[in-house]
Structures are given as structure tokens and as C-alpha cells.
Request: fold
Amino acid sequence: MRYDKHQATEEFTRWSKSYDRSILQKLLFGPSHRAIIGRIRGRFGSNRLNLLDIGCGTGVFAHRMREALPEARIWGIDLVSGMLEKGAERWAAHAGRVQPIQGDSERLPFAAGQFDVVTCSNSFHHYPHQDRAVAEMCRVLKPGGSLLLVDGYRDAPWGWFIYDVCVATVEGNVHHCSRKRLRELCQQAGFETVTQKIHRGAAPFLLTEAIAPASSPIPAPHLTGEHAGTSLLAKSA
Reply:
């Protein structure tokens, strides 16, 4: 049976209660967050950026980006309200510089060409229609903007066992893309340059960096305004 958004919502709603205490914060999330931040700083330095984090969860990564990139303006989007609500204190601490929004990666509630950087860290394997999500990531980037996508590296035997056996047993029919498939998805979405780096270790991961085309992005027909998602802060105000 194909993994769907209903399954993802149920799973992450349950996981939200212990997400910040998960061993994965140390084994996978922390190292991958540092790798992404390192690439952003390497390309953009300390410039002011508009940055979108897709699958932002409880805001752990957004908090780390705010500390490392104090000039950045950050939006975080997640499908699951429970994950966003568990990060309420974190969102409040960064109010005015970080905006959490409940929304769908396949129908991002943002205008075309809005962001300098889009990040997606360790959630991509949960997306049922990965091609649609990558196309949306490309659409919301400014010409020449960067997508930085991290997910488990499953092409080697150890990674295959962790992600295609262990993780799939626990999380259901999720799909960790091969290195080749991620490159193909980015190219099909219209990205002009795609580079990839494998980070090995107890929980190996793949960092894919894709550069948006220099031409202007095409507006999304599903938008009725610049922001069609639900802001957590506005909702709780």
C-alpha cells in the first residue's frame, strides 16, 4: 500500500510528543543540520536571506539557523499541526524572524520566486508525491536560489539496512530515494545544477544541493494570495 498524507499525519502527531528527545536528534538531525548551515554560509556568507524550511517539525532546525544566520528571515512549514504546536515556545522566542505555517509540501502557500534558500531535512522520504514537492521547491526559489535537501543515504549496504529495512519497518512504506533518483527529480523540476555529497557515519545521509534556473519561476495556479497557509502564530494570537 502506498504511503499517504493521512499516515504521515498520524505518525508525526504521535511522534511530536517525544520528537525533541529522539536519539535521532544526535545521530542524524544534528549532523545534517550542521551540514546544511555550513553550505548556506559557504555560499551566501552573512547576507540577509529569505529562507524556507519544509518539514520544519518543532522548529529545532529553524532555531539553529537563527543562531547561525542571525540576518535571515525564516519561514517553517509542516503538514502536521501537532509538530508545530510542540514547538510553540521556540516559535515565540523567535517571533518576528521565524514564521511557522501549517501547509503541504506539494502545494506550498507562497508566491513564486520568494526565497533565496529552501531546506528540507530528513522528511522527504515521507512525501507521497516527491516529484510534486521538488517542483514546488523549485517554483518558490528566486532565480539562482539554492535547494538544500537532506535524507538518509540508502545506496550502500549499511544505509540500505537502516532506511529500507529498519525505518520502513517502523514508519511504513516510506521511500528513501537513491542518489540517482534525487538527481533525476531535481533535473525534471527544472533545476540547472545539482551536486551531491555523502556524509557517512552511524546514520549516513545524502546532501543534495540544486540551483534554481536563472529564468523567472512560473506562478502556482493553486494560490489565491501570496500566503494561503495557516500561520501558527496568527492562529494562537
